[in-house]
Structure formats: C-alpha cells, structure tokens
Amino acid sequence: MATRANGSSCSLACLMAAIFFLLIVSSRGAHGGSIAIYWGQNGNEGTLADTCATGKYAFVNLAFLCSFGSGQTPQLNLAGHCDAYSGACANLTADIARCQSMGVKVLLSIGGGAGGYSLASKQDAFDLARYLWESFLGGRPSAPGGKRPLGDAVLDGVDFDIEGGDPDYYGDLAAYLKAYSGKGAAGKELLLSAAPQCPFPDQWVGKALDTGLFDYVWVQFYNNPPCQYAGGSAANLLDAWRRWTAGVEARYIFLGLPAAPGAAGSGFIPAGSLKSQVLPALKTSSKYGGVMLWSKYYDDQDGYSSAIKNAV
C-alpha cells in the first residue's frame, strides 16, 4: 500500500511537473508568433493596403530609404510603387492609415543592400534623426518648403537594415530617435527594429544593438552558411540563435528568412522543416517574437507565410 501510494504520488508529481514545463514552453512561444515582411522593392508585389489586408503580417517594413548621411539629401526608393522625387509616394498615406487601423505596425527601413549611406559623426546622426522625425514620423518639416514623402502618414518607427558604411554612429541615431518617442501630436511610442546578419555580433549594427534601445531584432539567418539552416540540419542556426538571444537586449528577436528559394543565395528552409525542426526550439526562448520574411514579392511566389503562419 505504502509503495503504491508513493508511486502514485510520484507519478502525479511527475505529471504535474511535465504539464507545468509544457505550459512554460507554450507561453514563451505564444507571446510572439507574428510575421514581419519587407515591402517596397518590387512593383509586382501588390499594394501596401492589400499586403496588410491579408491578415498575415504584424509588421511591414517599407524598403528603403537608401541614401542618407555625409551631406547627402536622403533618398526614398520604393522601386516600381511610386516616384518619391515627384511626390507620388504621398498617395500611400491612405494605405498606411489602413494598415495601422488593422493593427499592423508600419516602419521605414533605412539602408538596404543598394544605394549609398553612411553616418560620419554624431551630428550626422542627429540630423538624420530629425529628418526622419519631421518627414516620416510625428514631426513636421521645419525647413522652408520641406515635404513629407509619404504625406501625412505617421509611421510607427524605423528599421535599421544597415549593410555597409561606418558602424560607429548608428547607436547615436537610435538614441536620438528614441528621444522622440511619445512626442508629437500622435504621442505614440516610436519603435526601433534592426535586421542584422546572423554572424554575431553584426559588423554594422552590433554597436547600435548594444544600446538596448531596439524593440525588435529580425536576424537574417540566410546568405551566411556558418549560421543558417543547411543540408537538412538546423544545428548551426540554433547555435547562432542562442548567441543572439543571450547577447542582445531587445524586446523580441525574430528568425529572418527568405520567403522563397529565389529570395536569397542560400538559407531557405522548407516550411515543413521550419515547423518540425526549427520553430519548436526557438519558442523555448522568452525573446522569441516570430519570423521575418524577405520579401512580400517572394512570399507571393511561394505562399510561404500562409504555410507557416499557424506554426509561428
């Protein structure tokens, strides 16, 4: 009798411990579970409003403000969608408002793999922060004749997709931008995100991430074989993920992936493998936020977000 009682007690305790563990793992993964997408670099990827209306994305990064700093006039390039020079991108005001009304956060991505950009000093960072605030966020142009390229839309924040230039002053830019949070007529929080490549620390935004000012970090786990999924194995990716979650102070960290095999040179993960091999391991981290995809155009080709959404 005593032996049975002890065995039952042990079994019950073990069962309760197992349930408790599963609840912890489940809750850790449940807080994020969203998808971020880049939009703007292909005129055949549909409108911004239609992108948000799919209900698949929680964040849309408008790509890119591709030239800035070192005395340059900042240049917005949204490829085939609109011509910023002629003022035609102001017609996106209604689309942005529509996205935000559906709960989608819309951020301006600065940098990218093309164009020319670099910050030469703290003053340079300050000037760019002021330009971004007055042109895309809650401020209004202070310079005579200044215009807002996206009209009256107030974006939710700025994404740092920095892939070149001097890395020393992006932390200053982050600090200057965050100082605007809660200001302006809208009075809303100003979000900061970054898209570093998976080798840790990232050579261009690693110093900026050390500030702890970033809300979301969608790490590009592609085009870098030493830290990406390859040959059916997630080992390198998971090792890199652990370094990122341990080494970066951010609200959430996302798994950045190509949305189709043609979207990157390497690193595409078949949807089935992502769901069975990768996401369960990532969701044990309290910093897990979801998946970032490059890009809306490629997502349309492969239907990747639809295939993974319920698992994210």
TrEMBL record:
Domain GH18 residues, every copy: 33-312
Keywords linked to the UniProt accession: Carbohydrate metabolism, Chitin degradation, Disulfide bond, Glycosidase, Hydrolase, Polysaccharide degradation, Signal
Family (UniProt): Belongs to the glycosyl hydrolase 18 family.
GO term, biological process aspect, one: chitin catabolic process
GO molecular function, one term: endochitinase activity
Provenance organism: Oryza punctata
A Pfam match: Glyco_hydro_18
Catalyses which reaction(s): Random endo-hydrolysis of N-acetyl-beta-D-glucosaminide (1->4)-beta-linkages in chitin and chitodextrins
EC number: 3.2.1.14
GO CC terms of this entry: extracellular region
Protein name according to UniProt: chitinase
InterPro entries according to UniProt: Cts1-like, GH, Glyco_hydro18_cat, Glyco_hydro_18_chit_AS, Glycosyl_Hydrlase18_Chitinase
Superkingdom in the source lineage: Eukaryota
Signal sequence segment: 1-32
